[in-house]
Design goal:
By secondary structure, the chain is mainly α. The chain has one domain: MFS general substrate transporter like domains (Growth Hormone, Chain: A), CATH 1.20.1250. Helices cover about 75% and strands about 0% of the residues. Helix 2 runs antiparallel to helix 3, helix 4 packs parallel to helix 7 and helix 13 packs antiparallel against helix 17. Its main location: membrane.
């Protein structure tokens, strides 16, 4: 625990990390609330797949714009502005509910706004980490960033599952609105400027354009291989995120509470995995260690075959989280060390956009399987998509030179 206490001793990192936990707590509640609003319609299963696409597909468009902005403006202002915009979007549903009736299209519009702006914190926080902690503390700081998602993911879905029945799905979104406001305040209270590196004249360090930056990053074979593997894994997770509410609605007892338990189990596993990864670096090749973790996490998707038995399915969700968190932490530290500081904003935005853009593929792929009741086929497909790319990492990836940003 000493490593964690040392990193949290950096006041600015602690402020940003705390705000992130509160914000992601609201996010975890919002997914449950939006899913339950959509499932209340007669054609809920088909609409749920569309919600998954709306929630994730706009990430691609937003990520293209976010990278250059993070490398041009102070990340504190970017994170605060994003939080205020998403607070306004989320508040629209309880507001319309209080005034009369929430339009059927509004949950999809809110989900799209989430996706469009999602890359601001997903790229902004990790791009800021090297400016807030020492280089030797990157693994621990990245583990804490992962824990900010996981801890909130345990509490958020479980609390939402209970609150939906007490106050209604629309009013649960008020909590997420408040959480965004907390994150905006936390970002504003960070004292250290989080601007890009500057030259002696006070201007930005010469850096390639967005296209050149992406081209430079993608010259690194390690980054390419791990990014492609993570893209495939996220397709499977996109399938899982649609399957979870479908299972809770049709095969597991408890309804919304069961959905909260499944998502909380996934997040609890991530807590265990991230805590482990933040204290222990992999022996030998980091890339091989990432591949082994991904292969094991892929096998855990097969636990869906145990439905309607609830405990094995919950254990499977926990295993997916516990095994996928270390690969995420180790890969993020790897990228921070291989991508030059002046490319951190665009580099992380480009890579995380690519990885976050693939869950809609999974959402679209699994929807017809679930509508047809083919749960076994869905589980096997998830395992194959997530597991096969991991084999390439395990077999060994040529370790080229880290990205230099120079033209080749």
């Amino acid at each position: 625990m000493r490593q964690y206490l040392r990193v949290l001793g950096h006041g600015d990192f602690r402020r940003l990390w705390t705000g992130s936990i509160v914000s992601t707590l609201g996010d975890g509640m919002t997914f449950v609330a939006l899913s339950w609003l959509v499932l209340s319609a007669p054609d809920g299963a088909a609409r749920l797949g569309l919600l998954g696409v709306c929630y994730t597909a706009p990430v691609l468009l937003g990520g293209v714009a976010v990278g250059p902005l993070l490398d041009r403006f102070d990340k504190r202002a970017m994170l605060a502005t994003d939080s205020l915009l998403r607070a306004a979007a989320v508040a629209s549903i309880p507001l319309t509910a209080a005034l009369g009736t929430t339009p059927g299209w509004l949950p999809f519009l809110v989900a799209a706004a989430y996706g469009l702006l999602k890359m601001v914190p997903l790229a902004g926080f990790p791009a800021a980490i090297p400016q807030l902690v020492d280089e030797s503390e990157l693994d621990t700081a990245n583990a804490l960033e992962s824990l900010s998602f996981s801890v909130a993911g345990v509490v958020g879905p479980a609390a939402a599952g209970l609150l939906v029945g007490w106050v209604g799905a629309a009013n649960v979104l008020l909590v997420d609105c408040a959480s965004f406001l907390v994150f905006a305040v936390a970002a504003a209270r960070v004292r250290r400027p989080l601007r890009p590196p500057a030259t002696h004249g006070g201007t930005r360090t010469g850096a390639p354009s967005g296209t050149s930056a992406l081209r430079a990053v993608l010259r690194d074979p390690v980054i390419v291989a791990t990014t492609l593997a993570f893209m495939a894994f996220n397709v499977a997770e996109g399938m899982l995120m649609v399957t979870a509410p479908w299972l809770a609605r049709n095969h597991l007892s408890g309804g919304a509470t069961a959905l909260g338990v499944l998502l909380s189990a996934l997040a609890a596993g991530e807590i265990v995995g991230a805590t482990f990864a933040g204290q222990r670096q992999p022996r030998g090749s980091r890339v091989v260690a990432i591949g082994l973790m991904q292969a094991a996490a892929a096998a855990a998707f097969l636990s869906l075959l145990a439905a309607p038995h609830q405990l094995p399915v919950i254990a499977g969700f926990f295993a997916v989280g516990a095994l996928s968190a270390p690969m995420t932490v180790w890969a993020q530290s790897l990228r921070m060390r291989r991508i030059p500081p002046e490319l951190h904003g665009r580099g992380f935005a480009a890579l995380r956009t690519l990885m976050q853009a693939t869950p809609p593929v999974g959402s679209a792929l699994v929807t017809p399987l679930l509508v047809g009741g083919h749960l076994a086929a869905a589980a096997i497909t998830m395992t194959a998509i997530a597991g096969l790319p991991a084999l390439y990492l395990v077999m060994g990836v040529p370790d080229g030179d880290p990205v230099t940003g120079a033209r080749g």
